[in-house]
User: Fold Homoserine dehydrogenase from Eubacterium segne.
Amino acid sequence: MIKVAILGYGTVGSGVFEIIRENKDLIAANAGEEIEVKYVLDLRDFPGDPCENVLVHDYNIILEDPEVEIVIEVMGGLKPAYDFVKAALDAGKSVCTSNKELVAKHGAELIRIAKSHNRNFLFEASVGGGIPIIRPINMHITADKICEITGILNGTTNYILTKMDKEGADFASTLKQAQDLGYAERNPEADIEGFDAVRKIAILASLAKGKTVDFEEIYTEGISNITDIDFKYAKTMNKSIKLLGKCKNEDDGVVASVAPRLLSQEHPLYNVNGVVNGILVRGNMVGDLVFIGSGAGKLPTASAVVSDVVDAVRHLNVSTTVMWDEEKLELEDFSKSKKHFFVRTKADKKDIESIFGNVEYVDAGISGETGFITEKISEEKFSEKADKLGIISRIRIEG
Amino acid sequence: MIKVAILGYGTVGSGVFEIIRENKDLIAANAGEEIEVKYVLDLRDFPGDPCENVLVHDYNIILEDPEVEIVIEVMGGLKPAYDFVKAALDAGKSVCTSNKELVAKHGAELIRIAKSHNRNFLFEASVGGGIPIIRPINMHITADKICEITGILNGTTNYILTKMDKEGADFASTLKQAQDLGYAERNPEADIEGFDAVRKIAILASLAKGKTVDFEEIYTEGISNITDIDFKYAKTMNKSIKLLGKCKNEDDGVVASVAPRLLSQEHPLYNVNGVVNGILVRGNMVGDLVFIGSGAGKLPTASAVVSDVVDAVRHLNVSTTVMWDEEKLELEDFSKSKKHFFVRTKADKKDIESIFGNVEYVDAGISGETGFITEKISEEKFSEKADKLGIISRIRIEG
Assistant:
């Protein structure tokens, strides 16, 4: 019998509690030990809730109880999660977390502390919700150099973009609808502006490269400038627009970014729609692997958290191998990265061609403007030329 | 330094040799130990090949060398692979294999023998080539009851069906083309008739259920009866035809099958085309997870084999948890399983409706016959009615 404590009885925390109760026997069979939730920590009370009997308000009770082998941190945010997790690891407990902010900011340090105690710091649910992606990178794609990771890592923005794509709706009304349905927060900035996705791609990039990728150094652009007219052009090109987190080996180094991109129908992430997440990992031997599933939601995320708990029980006093050092990975300057751009402008074709040279025009029947695709050029060069020409907007083309 | 031996220097074996050499340093970092191929076993000679220095023709040299900790079996087939693998495990070595025949037939027994020596019998590459699917089932989907596994598990048949779909070609000429390109064997029966796929779904079903599913008891139907006219109907329905291996909890028990099925555009496997494989796993908590990648090919398959070797090194004297007992799982009779059928017949609508009741007609403009979709009925009931009516063909509808 292994005793665990859950920190935070919100959406994910209550899901973890429910799964451990509902699937008790099969989890015991998989873990090799029965798992019992000895404590749930929350500031609130939950009268009548099944967690009531194990609810505590003081973290020290958990920290000082040597029976608690595994701490499940599902509070989110950095404060007090970071201090709580560090204290648990220092007390010789393993920690499983769904907290992408914590992992993106302090992952390498917490892995090191866990290792020093022969314990584990596991965070499968911090990226891609229920989708196995951390464990495949750590435990499966171990014979390959990982050349690229490209993911639809945020369900809210994917829901909005899918709606805009399928229904021709504009951004503002789609966002409002998503908020009404609970798919977007009242304060949607973290999702819409890519701040959620950038932490997730930083985590994946750090694991793929074995060094720390600082999410604050990753070029980040959200979807709030994407319009229904952009989708009209996209349709003409047989493409869709997705918010992609990317980390890729390019000529001069590793380039990482979060930005909306135009994706062709042949791309394996083209059909990843709605709140679903999808992640492509390219290895130098295995080629392209694609992982698709629920990127958020109570039970999918909690399922991934509990799979970490099972893993922690299986490796109770053995630190599993996670390659992620505190040493920083210097990213290649994003402005050097080359790609095709789709551009909308009010300029005339003579100016377009004199500045951008060989371009491919896209006629979506929008009057008063011209759409075109550039040759493959660097971000830097593109900005120069775009400034010179004057443009309405531009979207990067994937691939 | 961990010493390994490769049994069989065919496509996969030479791929394993190449990856261990090419990605040596990163594999050493991931495994925590350098890995050296001490022997390659093959009956043939390979003058000038890099394997030449370590090539042996006598298995006993490997078996009796205590330095060899891990045996990599990539010969395929049951003889002599089964005896070789059993002997290696009995000698206290771990075994990694890509051999689906061996795993489907003797998996549970070989896992038991490995466990009894605190060693591992690993077989990630036996299903889905380079796609991580065995390890996710064993190590990730551990908090969920697995309700369904549905997979495109054979690249050859998927290549043929994709060609027929996209190009309107007929079966015979597409098969010939696939053979000319090396995507289909000269003797294509194992692929075409589903004998390859049925072993793979049996392995996945056994792991999902923890008991042995006998592949010989799984209903198996290949694609050799699928015609270009079937694809014309499929197009009219906005569907495609895929050969699916399935294992699903239905009302009265677990139903397993391999058969061509009509898939709608919304199905996550609809866009898995060409030689690519795709597998959907449905958990009772996590929902649908989809894994897509190269299902065959030298380097993708070898990559999965080497990932097993890394895993075996990480767990050198610890048996990792694999839930697959020798006890047999009694499958529910396939004839009781219910679904919609798409039917082609020369009978008239009066007879169709008097026998099948409420049907939905599909007009693909094919003269001299009628296409229709039945209500959801059991295989058994369908056969009775189809016999009574007289039909040209029928394809099961997925979902």
User: Anything to note?
Assistant: The longest strand of chain A covers residues 239-250. Chain A is about 35% helix and 25% strand. Residues 100-116 of chain A form the longest helix (17 residues).
